[in-house]
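Ticket #4471: structure output looks truncated?

Reporter: J.K.
Steps to reproduce: submitted the chain below (319 residues) through the standard prediction queue, then opened the result file.
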Amino acid sequence: MPRAGSRETGMTPRPPAGRDYHLALKREILETRVPLLCCRQAFLVGVSRRLAAGQSARLQLPKALREAPLVERLSRLTLPRSLAHDLTPARLTFPAGIRQQAWRRFARHLADHLRGIPSRHCLRAWLRGMFVRGGYLQDPALGYHLEIMVRGRTRLRVFRLVARALRLPFRFCWRRDHVVAYLKGRAGLVRFLRAIDAFDRAMAFQDLVATRQLLGAVNRQVNFEAANIQRAVSAAERQIEQIRRLLAEADPEVLSDALRAVAELRVKFPEDSLEKLGQRFTPPLSKSAVNHRLRRLDDLHRKLFPTARSDEAPPESGT
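Returned output as attached by the reporter:
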């Protein structure tokens, strides 16, 4: 079975920008060739409404999309061929009988789906029409929000059935005299774009989400490493200050030869790691031995200068 929503060759979509993202998506939908008649009729039902007079119906296109070339492509590629000569950008009305016939056929397809006969292509086409008629999709670069305006109890009931059939977790709220169906979050928007056959948009959206997640992970790792380095540098600076005070003010008999040797080397080579500092002794000391002696110097400093501030122990590795 051919897929509804295949793109016509030669069409170049306009790049979306900021708040015009949803208009660019609607333009792509209107410029998409729909090969199946049942899907064309389902799209017509979703994008149109019957006028109060009862003798005619009207396409509910946004004002920004009522230009003559787009309306001509719409009638040629997306709508039933019976409307090809009736539509003009200034007057988007057509006989109500055409819409009534399309509605009956769409209702049959919806009933078949509820009975277990697959017909999701028509449901997707109807949802595309609903989005073109009264939908808004925020630019994913700015946030994740989709909403579709739904008027009338019958249309709302059908919308709930279609959303459930396509597994779209829409939520609903009242806004003045109509209901708004809305989606939030990355997963729901990707599912919606796939449901209306906007696969290129869905892939671009997923690439954007993956890029954001990667950049977020890199930023978190960089911040974590920078914080660790800052803490290590601060601890090393305090350690050097404590050792210098011990060497300058403490009684020489308090420091053993081993502790004095470690203290002097620590002050002389403040950037050395514990392992490298241990290699400067003869014979060399292990990393744990150097760390043990530095801790003894820290304990000695606390005993001799109890009023001195010592917020944390010296680092076990690093500078």
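Triage note (M.O.): checked the attachment and the full token line is present. Residues 226 and 299 are 28 Å apart (CA to CA).
Status: closed, working as intended.
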